[in-house]
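Table S2 (continued). Query chain:
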Amino acid sequence: MALLNFKRSAPATETTVNPQVESFLKDYSIEVMPRTAEKVEDFRELLPAGTRVYVAHIEGTPIEDMVATAARLNRDGYKVMPHFPARIIKDEASLADWIARYQGEADVKQALLLAGGVAEPHGTFDSSMQLLETGLFGKAGFDRIHVAGHPEGNRDIDPDGSMKNVDEALAWKQKFSETSDATMALATQFAFEAGPIIEWANAIKAAGIDLPVHIGIAGPAKLQTLIKFAIACGVGPSLKVLQKRAMDVTKLLLPYEPNEVITALAAHKAANPEFNIEAVHFFPLGGIKTNANWAIANGGSSAVPADQA
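Corresponding output:
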């Protein structure tokens, strides 16, 4: 059953916060890009101090813009985790340069390593595993490294629709984590149904993958916006749910909100404390402000006004 809610949320003053959801949203993270960050006058009015903010590196974005965004977020008191997409990094020297810039100009100590959504590599790297094998992140003293997880598989990695290569990569990352000084976790692509997410999380745990999961959740957005991003990001079976909804033209004007998928995952976590989903990671597809306000209304920590920070 599709766990979606397409109704408008009541204003925050009328919302009764679900304590399970409040607990589940603790320490959530969120993703920005340099161009979306530019539209935010002051992050301190939207996000709690200490929030982990991923800085997504889209192909064509200058490294200077990435570092400047990371530096701004660091100054504002956030844990900054820039993307390192293997397929757009030319070579080991370029990787070393990126790391040096991030550390020297933005005091970055965390990184998300992923292959990156590029068909043809720009240089010698093709996967996050190759980035890890350089040893550069360990030498630079990174204290936290996240790598990608795929609850619905990934057609770029497994064109036949299986999970074979994805599962083999997870096993490799698990083994690497056992020798790394950095804290490691899986950050996943977004999905829309709790049932398959729970099944996947339980399956990888049963297979010996004990890396904690930071589950990707799409923030509030218009349905047509969500479908566009879901197609671009290679979302799997969940996309069919959205496409079915889109057949009703009237629902194209109604916003998607992640209430039901979050509520179901939170309830499962409350009933099973050992469940390996550790945190929520938001993709703010309908805007950072919209996503932050939804999180606050549903139990996420409130931001401190800038003049009180």
